[in-house]
Specification:
Nucleotidyltransferase, domain 5; metal-binding; alpha/beta; nuclease; 221 residues; 5-stranded mixed β-sheet; RNaseH_sf; EC 3.1.13.-
């Protein structure tokens, strides 16, 4: 395989210079500026020399609700998180984001990428909470793209005809334990497996690296 072909099988070239990071956030509501962020997990990714995407490292934190934040009873009842349980081992938003951004920046540099890009299931939710938390922690430079994301719910709807994480995983052949759902670490891991399968399936179908289109081929004849 030539060096030119090898260059195509890199995260940098696969995602236009962006480094994808899978994220899941558990919160105490749906308003990112006012409702508490309670848990965050990330999974970083890597690509082997043949261009197959796979899981790399993980990082997970329970978060202390920021001062003045709102905790909605229906939200914590749903995700089964007790924000004030001392056994959570929760840390501040600043502590969590400092460590997460440090790892993300390391992976960006290692893969010669220019910026991180958030990957999540219904990514708009996680992206807004991450951006709001970053603004509260003003001393940290955010390595993520300010608005572009990869949404596995949308991608799964296209590829598998399902937008629910559990159902998309089931069709993709990825085990999903409903009793562990809504744990940030578990949901992030399953979303990461799903994203890798979506990317790799497109490659197996011949969609990557891009081939000359049928129209182009016709024009050349």
């Amino acid at each position: 395989m030539s060096k030119k072909k090898n260059l195509r099988f890199t995260i940098k070239n696969r995602f236009r210079g962006f480094y994808p990071v899978v994220i899941d956030i558990e919160s105490a509501g749906f308003q990112p500026k006012t409702d508490a962020l309670l848990e965050i997990a990330i999974v970083t990714l890597k690509m082997n020399k043949l261009g197959w995407l796979m899981i790399d490292d993980t990082l997970h934190f329970h978060i202390i609700p920021f001062k003045g934040s709102i905790i909605k009873a229906e939200s914590v009842a749903f995700n089964k998180i007790d924000p004030f349980n001392p056994l959570r081992g929760a840390v501040s938003e600043q502590n969590a984001l400092t460590n997460i951004f440090k790892l993300v920046k390391k992976k960006i540099n290692t893969n010669n990428c220019k910026k991180g890009i958030l990957v999540a299931h219904n990514s708009n939710f996680d992206h807004k909470f991450l951006m709001a938390a970053t603004k509260r922690v003003k001393c940290i430079k955010n390595p993520f793209h300010p608005f572009t994301t990869f949404d596995t719910a949308a991608l799964s709807g296209l590829i598998f005809g399902q937008t629910v994480l559990a159902k998309a995983c089931q069709i993709a052949g990825i085990p999903f334990d409903a009793t562990q759902a809504h744990s940030a670490l578990y949901d992030t891991m399953q979303t990461a497996y799903l994203f890798c399968e979506l990317v790799n399936r497109w490659k197996r179908l011949g969609g990557w690296p891009p081939n000359i289109s049928h129209r182009q081929k016709t024009d050349e004849i």
